[in-house]
Amino acid sequence: MNMKRQVLSTTLILGLFGLAGAGLVATVEWLTRDAREASIVAARLKNLHIVIPPQIHDNDILADRIVIDDPAFSPRFKTIVYRARKNGRPVAAAFETTAPEGYAGPIRLLIGVDIDGRLTGVRVLEHRETPGLGDGIEADRSDWIFGFTGKSIGNPPLSRWAVKKDGGDFDQFTGATITPRLVVNTVKKTLLYFDTHKDYIFSAEQPDHGERDS
Q: For the chain, how many structural domains are there in total?
């Protein structure tokens, strides 16, 4: 009888410890949620202001956004367009899009385009390319990604929007052509989409709910 009571008592104590631990984890999660969300929003805004300078717009660029569903972009990944305006007038857009066929996996990009179709900046947000080879697309690894700034459809001509190995104007990396080729092609497709859908981009209604921090 004493043994049964001891087992029951031990089980009860362990159960109470488990509940207390779960409660503590839930409390910490609740207390830190706002801080984590604020950190995510701050990082996203920082990236946006790298490709779209903050001084050229006065709207809430994080809130002024739409989601693109178009064959020009991979259907496997969501493409978000952040819209920059000054005094209510469109000045630029930033495309957060994903190129799915990287050498080692998808490459997530942020591509800024001004109202005249010129690139205001391109940055790689995430990738899994080989260190020392494909990671040259990172801004802190090489200056390759800076070469897009100021370019547009027509500068260079559309036929030259390719890496040099394919007859284009853009450098590839020694021992790694797939990665820069994919980035160049993705930037080109984005510029072409912007050129033909500019009116839609700036007039489309924003999502009603749930997508700001996704």
A: 1
